[in-house]
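Exercise: predict the fold of this chain.
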Amino acid sequence: MDLDEYQRGALRTAAPRDKKNELLHLVLGLVGESGEVAEKFKKWVRDLDSDESRIDRAHIAKELGDVLWYVAVLADYLDLSLDDIATANLAKLASRQDRGVLGGSGDNR
């Protein structure tokens, strides 16, 4: 499955764009689901002594799937293709690596 195919599939379960506050709903949903990923790792640190063999990969995969759904639907809301986003992101990172600025901070490195 390619990313645009996933995006089209995700849209089958999305609310209509014209639903009141849908953009805000999508942004907050993305933040919330990302927070759930972080929460799983917080508990892994707190309760499991950061033992990588004890990461609950199945639960993390479910939460990452929720993050991916929100990214896909939010991108569509903004008329952006996931394939295009992914391609541009890899090109940006490769350029940073080639120029020796992969580490550090700032959007325009």
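Check your answer against the key: The chain has a mean pLDDT of 96.
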